[in-house]
Predict the structure.
Amino acid sequence: MGERRIGPVEVLAVLLVGGVLLRGHEIFQTPIVQTWAAVFVSIVLQALPFLTLGVALSSAIAVYVSSDVLTKVLPRRPVLAVPAAAAAGVVLPGCECGSVPVAGALLRKGIAPAVALTFLLAAPAVNPIVLVATAVAFPGQPGMVLGRAAASLLAATVMGWLWLRKGRTDWIKMPEHSHQHGFLSQARHDFLHAGGFLVIGALLAATINVFVPGRWLQFVADEPWLAVLAMAGLAVLLSICSEADAFVAASFTQFSTTAKLTFLVVGPMVDLKLFAMQTGMFGRRFAIRFAPATLVVATASAVAIGALL
Amino acid sequence: MNRAAAIVILLLLAGATTRTLVTGQYVSYVKAGLWPLLVISVVLLALFATAKGHQPKVAWLLVLPVLALLVVAPKSLGSYAAVNAGTVLTESDEYPPLPDGDPVEVKIFDYASRAVFDEGRTLRDRRVRLVGFTSTGPNGERLLVRMILTCCAADGRPVKIGMRNAEPLPDDTWIEVVGSYVDETAEDGVNGGKIPFVDVEDAIRVAQPERPYE
């Protein structure tokens, strides 16, 4: 009592007062700042429902579902459980922001990491909403929908098997147990945590979105290999929701089908936003290994399936 | 961070989201159809604020979107974003005749699609009314643009139409154009996409539509 200390609430108050004073300053009216802020805010707003519902679902799993049920549903042998987890991703509509906390909850429940990670990769990539959106964005090209589903399932399954052979559990910072608090506390903690990392991802993605001129792509579109690599890189940098990326892919008219397919397969599995969220959920030691490996496997799967189209 | 700060941050986020919903500003950032889900997230955020537990440091960052909305209050994507991205066209299975009306109201997206993929067959001999904002092409072409949104502004892509016989206006001016189809296309330097043209008969300034994206 009587202690004079600047605490977090005071810092928040200063931030808000500063915000009110600076509001409407002309530097914020410049097109570049306006566009940057619009993209940043929109990524956060778009992710908000999926993240809040995702943490609610993951807390529900953590608090109410017993580990026995989950292990009984999945095939006992991990080699078979991996493709089963990939297939399970097909039925759960949601986007990548929601699947990160859910995969975290599965891990906490003692599901094998290879299985939880396969689910993490497959769920945002091949759910019904995403596939329908792809069909709408590429009218008259059913190959694109089939190719996306096949290449994504392939990439997620290969990553799961790869983890079974090479993965080490000590790379993963096991998500904290806090079941003593119950459903809401768990959800609140997960939201504050994953939400903070989502903001980091949104900051990066908005910056790339605004400062990288689209016309640079024109120079690489005619070189088949460069085009594939450029599309993979762009998918990582732009961090677009998997439900929307097909329309963006369709606007890269000068790129080959395989290059566009690469964009669609890589985006839901590795991007800046996801990397930030995975770092938060599973630790940096995990993310710096898992994300590059996923990028290589997803690109290779897309090229392999693209060659068949 | 302590519990009080976490509560303030959660409530600020819920409050800022509610404000964009009430003022309708949210349609500048996400699809209009997202509102029920946003309402649910506001409720969940308020519920989270009532719970106890640890507060990770990284949660501080959640104040940034609130500050961005408060300080910058970004408008919907405009000319800057349109110049940076290639025009997007999606082919329809069929192009039925336009509805009655003279001039007939046509979406910019629809006009461009009919002009590019159907060689303007259904647009000839009709006067059309188009609403969009102005922008400038790489060779100084006057463009009429509408952004298309699938999920959020991060995936916003422009549909561009060139305007023949248009008066010069500053970029980002919302206008309503009455004009007719002309057989002319330009190439979008960003992605090599086709930009069809409209021959402008009359253009008047209008307020930005409630739904800025098509």
Remarks:
- The mean pLDDT of chain A is 87.
- Chain A touches chain B through 83 residues (CB under 8 Å).
